[in-house]
Amino acid sequence: MLAGGFRQATRRSAGITTGCAANSFNVVFFQRFSCFPERADYYSLISVAADSNYLGLPFFFSLCYAPSMPARIALARKRRSRSAWFAVLSFAIVLSAISVPAFGDQPGTGESKPATDPPQTEFKRFQLVFEPDAYYTDLDFIIALTQKPIPDLGEKTEAEIYGALFSRAAVLPQFIVLEASVNPLPYFGTYIRSHWKRFYQDAQVSDNFNWIKTITAGFEEPYAFSVLFGNVANFAVPGLQDTKGLGYSGYLISYGNFHIKDNRLIQDDWWEIEWKIKGDRKSPVKKLNWSFRIGAKEHGNPNITDVLYLSFRRSRVDYKSEGSFLLNNSGIEYTYSMDRRTFSAIQHYLTVDKKWPFESWRIALALAVGFVWDSSKKYTGSLATGKDNFQFIIRPNIEF
After folding, report:
1. pLDDT tens digits, one per residue of 125-163
2. Alpha carbons within 13 A on the beta-carbon side of 211
3. Are 347 and 378 within 8 A, CB to CB?
4. Of the candidates 61, 187, 217, 337, which lies 20 to 30 Å from 145 by C-alpha distance?
């Protein structure tokens, strides 16, 4: 939920759907069965392939699939078609843009690349990892299921990092990771609205702009509990204390009992299952965070729409800035959510950020801007607004 928690999707931070390595990769999309016109209300799920030996990504989608009502499909057909193609096209274009320079990325000055494969670290059955952040703080407990230590992948370019994690995603789970995470500033936003009502009202600059909501928007839960069944990779280089990082890939199941809407806490026992690849790596010259995920979210509150989604996030800090001004010291996150039953667009979430690093301190000031668009169909009953909602995002942060 990013310095590095594996839920961190969820948004920074923070936790897959892209092809940044040499492997072929097909984006998930939905297509009507043209050969069975009498079953026009049923859909097929085109599976994702990160490699020829990929294992069962579409499985959990089959659990979430439910045929839609013909009447609702007819009403939503045009909007769904436009929104789905827009999401897939945007996804492909942005990934192409951020990936091409990465493939030619060379280890920066100050990063020592070993002449041979690095030695593996000693085996540890249990490991504890804590990652603080203003928007997403997590505590991870890593449990090894075999006698093998977390593999050290050593020095890698950005493209090689993605390729290594995608290749390991096809391997049977060798680790279980338990995580408890909290979203401090978004959670604090609900506290302000509930306990400091006058202060919150004073933050309402106009009918459509509240600066507290603008800073805390984009997070739909105050906290979560998660378990990952998958694999872990270590990007540390033995002998170099200032080069470190972990990567995760596998199936993630999360649970929480509250939902955030307009800085209000709403009772909601929700479950989320996703397939994702995420991680972070920090060296003397740069810091890289990434997350690629595809999943489904089921809400216990009947007034909140259940969704399927695909999401990616990539963030990079270059302490010794060289090369592309657009791609270095920058980040992007995009999430597209659709109704689980009708496949109509429910949410578009997009942020882009720019960073200003301080090399001597190994920190960077960051400012993310973007928006969240919610369909009027996202909420029903007592939570319904009757119209689409558009919310600007301005998110200052400090990255360590």
Report:
1. 999 999 899 999 999 999 999 988 888 877 777 788 778
2. 5
3. yes
4. 61
